[in-house]
Amino acid sequence: MKKEWNLINKVLEGVKTVESRWYKSKIAPWNKINTGDTIYFKDTGSFVTVKALVTKVEQHEVEDNIQAIELMSKYALADLGTSDLSNSIRNYIKNKRYAIFIHFNNVEKITPFDIDKKGFGMQCAWLSLGNVETIKINNRANQSS
Fold this sequence. Notes:
- This protein is α+β, with helices and mostly antiparallel strands.
- The protein has a single domain, classed as Archaeosine Trna-guanine Transglycosylase, Chain: A, domain 4, CATH 2.30.130.
- It has 3 helices and 5 strands, in the order αβββααββ.
- Strands 1, 2, 3, 4 and 5 form a 5-stranded antiparallel β-sheet that branches.
- The chain is globular and about 45 Å long.
- The chain starts with 6 loop residues before the first helix and ends in an 8-residue tail after the last strand.
């Protein structure tokens, strides 16, 4: 998540209850995430610090930028914590063909851990896997010296 958007705090405060993903092609988590799955959150360049339970998944094939704005407007408050669609958000969703809205609850702050994205691609923003333990890195953040 973009650290400057302060979304992790919004998740923890219960302001953000939906995670949206916008893509030009059908990539993860498209057809890979389901109600009952656990999702984990981290800011870009930081450790994973929060987990939540998926309660609903909505997938949309976006016809045009007008529909993209309509979809984002519908979920902006639950996704971004604001109903204002800034130019940054509008530019982010522009010309995207697929939108996924992942609703969640049971948010928990967890012991921070780092992950190894080897095999997923370093730029990959969403990983779908059976067990998070397979990508956890034993790190010093969890150990006392």
